[in-house]
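Troubleshooting log. The previous structure file for this entry was overwritten by mistake, so regenerating from the original sequence record. Sequence copied from the archived sheet and checked twice against the printout by T.R.
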Amino acid sequence: MRDHLGRPIVAVTGIGLVTPLGFGVAESWAGLLAGRSGISRITRFPTEHLRTTIAGQVVLPEEAGREPLSSPERVERMAALAAEEAVAEAGIGARANFPGPLFLGMPPVEVEWPSRLALARQGNGGEAGSYPALIAAATGQQALFESCLFGGVGERLAERFGTRGAPISLTTACATGASSIQLGVEAIQRGEAEAALCIGAEGSVQPEALIRFSLLSALSARNEDPTKASRPFEKSRDGFVMSEGAAALVLESLESARARGATVLGLVLGAGEKADSFHRTRSNPDGGAIIGAMRAAIADAGLEPGQIDYVNAHGTGTPENDKMETLGMRAVFGEASPPISSNKSMIGHTLSAAGAIEAAFSLLTIRDQRLPPTINHEVPDPAIPLDVVPNVARDAKVTQVLSNSFGFGGQNVCLVLGAAP
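Regenerated output below.
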């Protein structure tokens, strides 16, 4: 029950998912294997005069017939739904008594435009735009204040599930979800916890976030057919598609899981991280951080590159990212690269949730011995000589998967997932 470094082996005993393909593991995974796109025209807010008008949206049941929830509310709700599914599958933490800490990966939160404009309108009762008037308008807005506390979401989720110790909320850009899993793994490996609830959640399909990414020229503007917009590794790719969702994993030491008779869904064998601080959005052209994170994860798992059967790509569909990931693949695996595919072709880029969602999909790939496809792969890019599992899912023998998460600002985390013993 120990790994090659003498650390407790970390098992996964519960998985929960919320994606634009559906609520729950079964619906999301079935849609992914079918090559179904969850990208659609944005209906949550007006998109006139915007360069990008598509996204991967999750419409929550409580939003029917009312104004959409704010991003922090959506993050909390989707995180809770994913965690409920994962905890129930694990058969652990009954009566809100989860026997370990919470690690929550989520986006930065702030007061959104509608609330800011409402405060400004109220504040204009005095001298137009004056700080005293705005402060007076904001006084007593406790609910608004609490919704925008970064640690508040984690505190409420910790109370809901009865996790132990202070919850950890973190953001590492597009690597956030993978970072939450890495922290849970390391807590168990150090013997600080027998179990951990690890969540990645994202709810930022809202005007300000969309415009910010658009100004960075990061988003696809292929609005005519939303289902065809996300095109990782394809020659005509023009950017990623913003999306939202959540995933939760229940991690336990293998010894603890076996002792209580839990079903082990897979293992987290290793994690590697490396940052380069080269640019706010771009990777260093030498690929050092991406290559280093991949190699570190494989080494941490006690494996050689040739023992990786499949790579769940970061695969955003931006010209820059896909080129750099290809460079990393060739550096790490040489001419014998394993198959690699991107679920972002179907669900878009779920940002803070992506690393956790992709870890979940990696475990399901191992479970079903079936590689999800990269859809919309019409014209191969000659600069990307990889097997990207184009357009159609494929049966394959899969024992170990490398899951890549490469974030803005040079924050990179890779995970190695393995089959249950």
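The chain is about 35% helix and 20% strand. Archived copy saved in two places this time.
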